[in-house]
Amino acid sequence: MAQATTLHDAFLDELRDAYDAEKQLTKALPKMAKAASSPQLRKAFENHLKETQGQIGRLEKAFASLDEKARGKHCDGIEGIIEEGQSVMEEDFDETTMDACLIAAGQRAEHYEMAAYGTLVAWAKAMGHSEAASLLQQTLDEEKAADAKLSALAEGGINEQAADGAHADNEEEGAPALVGGGRQTASGNDSTKRSRRR
Ligand SMILES: [Fe+2]
């Protein structure tokens, strides 16, 4: 009789998913670095590419610690996140807006990975796979630091710079539009009066 699938099987499945996700990211990160205008942002993506290569090595060690062959299983989640980032890069944004959007795309990937590694660490610990747990924890810490770095870049000037250009085109049209908005409210009051008159 076939044995029931256990948490250990689910754990191996998640490890394979993470292994594939990291491999997909090693192809996406150079494109994001190339699309970035801010030198610091480009550097952050390049650094994270190096870290990602190290994370692949750590996953291989984790597989080995469990006497398992390292292999990936296609990660649909990260594929979707990468595809969304790809379509952002095809947009005709100004430089800082593109940077702000690249940060948003990068952080989606980081958060996805943080969720995955958080689970992996907890499951490894629960099953007593201490070597795998410590390797996965190192990667989780790296993903958190990469995410914090992106937040610092966004909040340290990129968002503000992008916001400076956000309403440049409709500054002239903006004011009358507000007045128009006021008028709409007035006509709403008018119709109330009209209905009262009936
Ligand atoms: Fe990663």
Structural write-up:
By secondary structure, the protein is an all-alpha fold. The protein folds into two domains: 160 residues, Ferritin (Up-down Bundle); 29 residues. 83% of the residues lie in helices and 0% in strands. Helix 1 runs antiparallel to helix 2, helix 1 packs antiparallel against helix 4 and helix 3 packs antiparallel against helix 4. The radius of gyration is 24 Å and the shape is elongated. It starts with 6 loop residues before the first helix and ends with a helix. The C terminus is likely disordered. The structure holds fe (ii) ion (FE2). The site of fe (ii) ion has 6 residues, from helix 1 and helix 2. Fe (ii) ion (FE2) binds next to helix 1 and helix 2.
Properties at a glance:
198 residues, mainly alpha, Ferritin, 2 domains, 83% helix, binds fe (ii) ion
What's the helix and strand layout?
Elements: H1 7-35, H2 39-65, H3 76-89, H4 95-126, H5 130-164, H6 171-197
Helix pairs in contact: 1-2, 1-3, 1-4, 2-5, 3-4, 4-5
The chain binds fe (ii) ion.
Fe (ii) ion (FE2) is lined by residues 22, 25, 52, 55, 113, 143.
Structural class: mainly alpha
Please state roughly what percent of the residues sit in beta strands, choosing from under 5%, 5-15%, 15-25%, 25-35%, 35-45% or over 45%.
under 5%
- Known CATH architecture of the largest domain: Up-down Bundle
Bound molecules: fe (ii) ion
Biggest β-sheet description:
none
- In CATH terms, the superfamily of the largest domain is Ferritin, core subunit, four-helix bundle
Distance between the termini: 81 Å
Query: What is the H/E order?
Result: HHHHHH
Q: What is the average per-residue confidence, as pLDDT, rounded to a whole number?
A: 88
The dominant shape is elongated
Low-pLDDT segments: 173-198
Work out the radius of gyration.
24 Å
- What is the total number of structural domains? 2
CATH topology of the largest domain: Ferritin
Q: State the helix count.
A: 6
Compute the number of strand runs: 0
> Could you name the CATH class of the largest domain?
Mainly Alpha
